[in-house]
Amino acid sequence: MPDILSNIAMGFGIALTWQNIGLCLFGCIIGTAIGVLPGIGPLTTMAMILPVTFWLSPVGALIMLSGVFYGAQYGGSTTAILVKIPGETSSVITVLDGHAMAQRGRAGPALAIAALGSLFAGSVVTLLIAIGGPPLAKIALLFQSADYVSVMLLGLVSAVVLAHGSVLKAIGMIVLGVMLGLVGTDVSTGEYRLTMGLDVLFDGIGFVPLSMGLFGLAEIMVNLEAAGGAGVEAKTVSGLWPTRADLKRSFPAMVRGTVIGTAFGILPGGGPTIAAFSAYSLEKKVSKTPERFGKGAIEGVAAPESANNAAAQACFIPMLSLGIPPNALMALMIGAMMVHGITPGPEIITKQPALFWGLIASMWLGNLMLVVLNLPLIGIWVRLLQVPYGYLFPTILILCCIGTYTLNSSTGDVIVMTVFGVIGYAFRKLDCEPAPLLLGLVLGPMLEENFRRAMVLSNGDWSVFVQRPISLGFLLLAAALLLAVALPNIRRSREQAFLE
Amino acid sequence: MGRAFASKDFLAGGLYMAFGLFGLWLGRTLEAGSASAMEAGYFPRLVCGLLIAVGAALAAMSLLRAGEIPERGRWRPLIFVTLSCLAFALLLHPLGLVLTLLVSILLACLAGGQIRPVPFLLLCLVLILANVGIFVLALRIQIALWPAL
After folding, report:
1. Predicted complex ipTM
2. Chain B residues 53-72 with CB within 8 Å of chain A
3. For residues A53 and A92, what is the distance between their CA atoms, to the nearest angstrom?
4. Max mean pLDDT range (A48-62, A119-133, A285-299, B43-57)
5. What is the pLDDT of residue A173?
6. For residue A500, what pLDDT band results from cuts at 50, 70 and 90?
7. How would residue B3 be classed by pLDDT, with cut points 50, 70 and 90?
8. Is A171 within 8 Å of chain B by CB?
9. CA distance A275 to A283
10. A430–B43: do the CB atoms touch at under 8 Å?
11. CA pair distance A216, A210, nearest whole angstrom
């Protein structure tokens, strides 16, 4: 125990130097400002800021980048709540209830709870990493490819359980997402697959163009259609602060979200997205009034926002201890470390304790700063809602275009986005929920890689997935979930939950 | 009977099958290999096959009960939003950012219906200044502002 305390103290000693506080603050402000712009999520923001960090010390660089990360993630949730464009996959689920709250004039409380939930999760996980980080990294080491495959299947199944409407449709959307994730260069053989010979697709279908098309553009088309050209009414906003009832409802959700987020964050291949999805479906399961979900339930904001932040922070564990980036953002962090000559791996915690603990402490600091910075600014973000749609939608459309373009300086990506805008419009017309597709897209390549490796290791024997206890456990859990949805009486209550 | 084939579920099933078949066709030249030594084509075939199966099941089940028919869409937003984005993609390099934004904003506003000249010009001015300010001046992203002469 004294060990941990001294480690945390050392971490804060490093994070609390004026220079590092300044870097953290700067990162948070830039991150939020850019993250609020629709369609530009943490990934884009971090990629744009990365070159600046080359001039800083390694700790300073990582502290600033994680500030940008949290700021942009929070900014991404802000746009998810206000204009229904998730900045990142992990805030896709926040759209459901967050935007519903905004439409009922409760954008303020939704934003406040998102920030408070993130702070709560961040504080808990910082402590957890300090206490359990090193031993937990050893457990994650036991995972083999077959186990990764099963845990990803579990994540996909939970996405099905939570999707609106028909189960088969949701499964179809996920499988379609996995298929779209395969487009591009095959990692093991270097062959181009399903690219139609177009060079924009050689590196795969980008997450940003796809999600901006499916969510941003399709949303504009549907809104304009519904309102007969005038667009949706500007919403009135009453009350920026959560009520006592809101807090009472949100707190247990934050706790559950944090637990789930931590668990999924530690598993490589888990990460914030699955965590947010699972936390949301759990919240709906345990709720006494599941019919409120999707229509502005505050727990539906608190749980996934806590979970994705907890997971985002916990996924530093596999990254720092195994050198495996659980998601694209962590891959970027690894890139930043490599530039400074640090190789992520088991020796980081022992050999670079200052870096490890300084980073952990700065995460907490970053979360605190976000709350302090953003709660007073909520009024400004909320004012975005009062702009008439006739001005708002061309702005969103232009930002989608320019945001997609700046990612790779590629006009081809803008065309990809446009194509997915049309496809997304068709999905809306056919009641196909696009969120599971995004999850499939992100997990698809990882799923294939681990599936291949597992099959090579088992010499083509499919039973490997049920022979390993860890894998079997995840599969049984996934099967139980699917069965639960398929059973008639549960299905009926689920349909009721989605009614209206 | 005609109604059954126009239900949302039937069309969605058809769409899934179309994507699956298209994927199979695109990947027709990829080697599949075997389960123990997978080549580039193994997993895509597995996934496309699954997608076709899910689509077929969805379509078949939709015929058993009367499903909802999709609402009629309006063409105007769909076409002009698409045109606006395409214009951005195709005009950016020859025309530079400022003129491209003008064209894209014009097309976007047409998606919404009537254009009133004064608010339209104000919107153009604000959006162009903001985008040039944020992306070109502050973030230093390399985009030409004007057509290369």
Report:
1. 0.93
2. 54-55, 57-58, 61, 68, 70-71
3. 29
4. B43-57
5. 92
6. very low
7. low
8. yes
9. 12
10. no
11. 10
Flag if A411 and B93 touch (Cβ within 8 Å). Answer: yes
DSSP summary character for residue A164: S
Query: What torsion do the CA atoms of A114, A216, A25, A246 make, to the nearest 10 degrees?
Result: -10
Residue B81 corresponds to which amino acid? V
Q: What angle is formed at CA A79 by the lines to CA A78 and CA A83, rounded to 5 degrees?
A: 130
Average pLDDT in the A290-294 region? 79
Is the C-alpha dihedral spanning A449, A452, A455, A456 positive or negative? negative
A283: tokens are 């919240």
Report whether A33 contacts A27 (CB < 8 A).
no
| Contact call for A455 and B36, based on CB within 8 A | yes
Residue B65 Cα, gap to closest chain A Cα (Å): 14
How far is it, in rounded angstroms, from Cα A232 to Cα A221?
A: 11
Give the nearest partner residue to B36 out of A225, A414, A460, using CB atoms. Answer: A460
Q: Determine which of B21, B24, B43 to mutate to test the interface with A (most A C-beta atoms within 10 Å).
A: B43
Of A240 and B108, the structure prediction assigns the larger pLDDT to B108
From A247's Cα to the closest Cα of chain B, the distance in A is 37
Spatial CA neighbour of A99 closest among A115, A113, A111, A112: A111
The confidence score (pLDDT) of residue A125 equals: 84
Alpha-carbon separation of residue A389 from A211, A220, A457 (angstroms): 21, 10, 56
> Nearest residue of A to residue B35 by CA position?
A460
Report the 10 Å Cβ neighbour count for A22.
Answer: 13
In angstroms, what separates the C-alpha of A310 from chain B's closest C-alpha?
30
If one compares B54 and A285, the residue with the highest pLDDT of the two is B54
Residue A318: predicted pLDDT: 65
C-alpha–C-alpha distance, residues A419 and B86, integer Å:
9
Q: Is the pLDDT of residue B62 over 80?
A: yes
When pLDDT is cut at 50, 70 and 90, the band that residue B1 belongs to is very low
